[in-house]
Amino acid sequence: MKTQAAVLWDLGDPWSLEEVDLAEPVAGEVKVKLAASGLCHSDEHLVTGDIPVTLPVVGGHEGAGVVEAVGPGVTSVAAGDHVVLSFIPSCGRCRWCSTGHQNLCDLGAHLLAGVPIADGIHRFSSKGRGLGTMCLLGTFSPYTVVHEASVVKIDDSIPLDKAALVGCGVTTGWGSAVYAAQVEAGETVVVVGIGGVGINAVQGASLAGARRIVAVDPVPFKLEQAKIFGATHTSPDMESAKALVEELTMGEMADKAILTVGVAEGHLVAPLMDLISKQGRAVVTAVAPMQQMDVKLNLHLMTLFQKQLHGAIFGSANPRADIPKLLALYKEGQLKLDELVTRSYSLEDVNQGYQDMRDGKNIRGVILYD
Ligand SMILES: NC(=O)c1ccc[n+]([C@@H]2O[C@H](COP(=O)([O-])OP(=O)(O)OC[C@H]3O[C@@H](n4cnc5c(N)ncnc54)[C@H](O)[C@@H]3O)[C@@H](O)[C@H]2O)c1
Ligand SMILES: [Zn+2]
Ligand SMILES: [Zn+2]
Question: Tell me, what CATH number does 117's domain have?
């Protein structure tokens, strides 16, 4: 079929809206008519080259929609089912999937190439070239064809434009607090960077029963929003957050700190580790440029204070269990999704959406399809 897509042809280019060809699903694949796609910072990392994917690529990895057709052998979903697209596929069989770590599924190895797992042949094409898809999804198009491993069936009553956000930002942020940081009732937690991911780390810490949640961001609007999601204190930067946490905890410092800034940089690790107490845990969820090797870290204090520095992909969550779980919490009024969306856009306005993200105007921008 012919459809439209926002394509990145070269590093530093704007997203280019193209008419594209989309092939039908082969065995093991699912064609989805998308309702919405979130504008996550990770697609910006493709533009800057921080995440070195094979170009050209159809962007977008935070989507939800309705299954339009399935290829041979697909058993977990059928036409008409509502689905969230998970930015990490899960095969259910590899060592990681079978031990409760679906976020680390071996199929994740296909993410940077962005070429269909089933047969290595692009489903999207334009101007005679095959187009890869961001995280094997390509949600910057009203239609996409993805592997069954990337779709999670959901309750039909959940609005799809809100469900889309659970495909990346919500689960990543919530899980960064609940699973990766293992926030416990009564703890003090600092979340550094309040975008679509960080705000959900605030929300996860709050649901886990944190006593104090310090939201850190230079943009005053972000800090105001963080309070709606459970932040008890705010700070414009890590330096002032350190002084605040020192005062709040009588020098003990925070139990957990979570880094969710737009771009992780090595020099941010030392001030992040300064925020946590003895035995404290710092979680790095923000993505750094792949080539970056140098990190500022007081290694001496890390050892003597027994501090932990922990990475986290997809919030250490299991997409097949956690996406439905988070949507059930939303349905019961315990998880906020509606309040996450600051602005919505048409696909034509995807570049404006990213400019608004860079300008600090959005908690999350969302593309809505018909
Ligand atoms: N690990 C994962 O699985 C995963 C998944 C999704 C996104 N990410 C990454 O998480 C990060 C956040 O994504 P997002 O979509 O929320 O981004 P975003 O751009 O919407 O939000 C980032 C926020 O960080 C703030 N910020 C920037 N520098 C800061 C600093 N030094 N101190 C405090 N705040 C600062 C910005 O003002 C902004 O509000 C990105 O790096 C993204 O690629 C990781
Ligand atoms: Zn994302
Ligand atoms: Zn697996």
Answer: 3.90.180.10
